[in-house]
Amino acid sequence: MNYSCSVTSMKEIYRRFKENITRHKMIQPADRVLLSMSAGKDSIALFHLIELLRKEIDFETGIFHLNHLIRGENSDNDELLLRDLSAEHGIPLHCIRHDFNSIKTDGLSFEESARNIRYSLIKEICEKHGYNKTATAHNFNDNAETVLMRIFSGTGIRGLGGINIFSNRIIRPLMIFTADELYKYLNDGGVSWREDESNRDEKYLRNYLRNTIFPLVVNRFPDAVRNINRLSDHARENEELLDSMVFEKYGAFCETGEGLVKIFMDRLPDDVSIIKFILSRSIYRTFGEKISHGVTEEILKKYRSRGSNLILYENPRIVIEKIFLNNEKFLLVYDTKEKRDPLNDWSYSVNIDSVSTVFIEEIKRKISFEKVDNIFFEENMLNRGYIFISLPENCNSIIIRNRRRGDRILLENGVKKIKEIMIEKKLDTFSKSIVPLIEVENSIAAFLPGIAGLHGNRVSCSFKVQGNSKKIIAINSAVFTLI
């Protein structure tokens, strides 16, 4: 196979490699870069070019290798080559052996599932060993193949953008080189590598494109690879322009954080194209996750249903929920693997004798307290605007906080976990994190889902107002409003 070849010297290849890294600021002094490698020619070329660069820039490297175990002895020999390479150069090797023969694809192609596993393992190794960047060996031809696969499979402007040269701490410094240039570089240097015979197996879509489709295309259109890459560049530039324009105008209606996206739907114009763009782009920005046109259509279709607090979409990585809170609708997207609550733990200690109102910064709400007598209680006990608790006479303070693991409350039918009550009320992830609890002397006195726009505030049997109650506190739910 011969797409096209620019004959260059080894020195010229290195010059262009260094210039590409410098221009895009891919590697800085003191970086720790994990090289994601197979034993193939692209990976070996990446390794040798990086080693040359280390003589000019002070940074550290490590090697990640995923042994798929699907080629028996050949897979083990690939691993052995990289072990020898790491030992020779004194570079740490992080080798994972994963049995891809029994991979569960969950509706994805084998290639997609394998890719997800590989990047998940890379993330774990980077976090554990302090690597701040990962380098992969994708080249110029890989990008053209990716764009063409996406066109055939169905894609939009983002998909036409192909493989980003630098995104989410992943650098791809070989993207400026054709496969033939890297092949010649290694041959000229007398550097050996291993061929993966599975690359000839055309049951994999990329192999079919590479071995069958592209040779036919290039025979008729010699500049096809270069022109597809130009299309990719134009698509990426246009998307970046569209991105900046949309988020400049509507960005205030979309809050993003680590592992969390919140889109205020009522504040956006009733324009499906804008909503779809903001949803898909926000998810990609935050999670690096691409959702298809069909998926966004289905999400919006479910969103328009009458139900509230619904899960609209989920995959092994993210969950998208429809939330209705304080008469406002929004979409909440969060990372399932992180198992995070959207908000961190928060807690406020309140002196009942001196404080009448507390503003909870984390959820931007205020809660009002008032000491009342038995007459006020009897007149307002059926008023849903109030929650009443009875405190011990010598108790002057309470704690307002969100739920913790293991929280329980004493109800008429016995002790019950707060988590179980939340499940019964079908509270979504966001609502679970903002519903306040009232804690008195290390016991849960009240559970207040009213703040999430739901009914059914619960008061512990130990703190219910009785005929002989001396210290009654009225919590005014009417001020559960956004400030």
Explain this structure to me?
- With 483 residues, the chain is of the alpha+beta class.
- The protein folds into three domains: 10-234, Rossmann fold; 258-335, no CATH class; 347-479, no CATH class.
- Helices cover 38% and strands 22% of the residues.
- The protein contains 14 helices and 22 strands.
- The protein has a six-stranded mixed sheet, with helices on both faces. The protein has a five-stranded antiparallel sheet with strand order 7-8-11-10-9.
- Strand 9 and strand 10 (318-325) form a beta hairpin.
- The longest helix has 27 residues, at 224-250.
How would you characterize the largest beta sheet? 6 strands, mixed
Mean pLDDT: 85
Estimated radius of gyration: 29 Å
Fourth-tier CATH superfamily name of the largest domain: HUPs
Query: Unreliable stretches, pLDDT < 50, 5 or more residues?
Result: 1-7, 338-343, 478-483
Looking at the structure, what is the overall shape? Answer: elongated
CATH topology of the largest domain: Rossmann fold
